[in-house]
Design goal:
Structural class: alpha/beta
Radius of gyration: 28 Å
Strand content: 5-15%
Helix content: 40-55%
Strand order of the largest sheet: 1-6-5-2-3-4
Largest sheet: 6 strands, parallel
Shape: elongated
Low-confidence stretches: none
CATH superfamily of one domain: HUPs
CATH class of one domain: Alpha Beta
Order of helices and strands: HHEEHEHEHEHEH
CATH topology of one domain: Rossmann fold
Number of helices: 7
Distance between the termini: 104 Å
CATH architecture of one domain: 3-Layer(aba) Sandwich
Length: 248
């Protein structure tokens, strides 16, 4: 009898946690908000990709014989070499596409635009040198050394170099974004697609481009982003060609 009473009086080590209806309701609301945020981000990304593709519809070309003539070709810059020192296939592809247009008399002048904000990294000069090596006369090449982003390249082509009609030269997925930005900045742009050298997306360029397209839409409709720098006016074909500080 004594043992039975003793066992009944022994406190239990187990702790029972009872969730109140209020806690469950808060948890459900948090999950609902998170779900809605995920859906909103997905919807923004999907709609951004659609808007960019629609803006470029009917303005992309892959044949030098079919593309209309434009006075200026805007070559969007990239580095000549990758981080490991090997040749950048995107660079070579863009140079080759630019030469195709020049030899077909579909471009009179080139505007090479790229990032030049750190010492030893100069996309515009790399592109200029590539065109020179391919036989394009120096007086036909103008350098935009402040094309930090595609947005900068497009708006500076208009506001600094006075170009309101041009051919963008890059890979097609990049040209789509450039044409979208041009269409919202009073620039009549068409695109000539350099061959895509990374169809398997080993470099991640295609994945990054999807984020860049979403950013372009946000820059256009929400942030109203402007170029980092403008500068003195330059008239292509009238003023002497511009070069970057690192140019030879």
């Amino acid at each position: 009898m004594y043992n039975r009473v003793k066992n009944m009086q022994k406190p239990s080590s187990a702790v029972t946690v009872v969730s109140s209806p209020r806690n469950k309701s808060v948890a459900r609301r948090i999950l609902l908000v998170l779900l809605l945020l995920v859906l909103a981000v997905a919807a923004l990304a999907a709609s951004s990709l659609v808007m960019v593709r629609r803006a470029a519809a009917g303005r992309l070309y892959s044949s030098a014989t079919e593309i209309p003539h434009r006075h200026v070709g805007l070559v969007l810059g990239c580095s000549r070499r990758l981080g490991d020192g090997t040749p950048n296939p995107f660079f070579n592809s863009r140079i080759h596409a630019a030469i195709e247009l020049f030899q077909a008399s579909k471009i009179d002048y080139f505007l090479v635009s790229g990032d030049n904000h750190t010492k030893g990294y100069d996309e515009a000069t790399d592109m200029r040198d590539g065109l020179l090596e391919a036989g394009v006369p120096a007086q036909r090449i103008y350098s935009d050394c402040a094309g930090f982003r595609t947005l900068d390249s497009i708006v500076r082509a208009r506001d600094v170099f006075g170009v309101r009609q041009l051919t963008v030269i890059s890979q097609e997925f990049h040209n789509q974004r450039a044409i979208f930005l041009a269409s919202h900045n009073d620039v009549d742009a068409i695109g000539y697609g350099a061959p895509d050298v990374d169809l398997g997306d080993a470099s991640g360029a295609h994945r990054r481009e999807k984020f860049a397209k979403v950013k372009a839409v946000i820059d256009t409709y929400v942030l109203r982003t402007k170029p980092r720098f403008l500068g003195p006016k330059v008239s292509i074909g009238v003023d002497p060609p511009t070069t970057c500080s690192a140019a030879n």
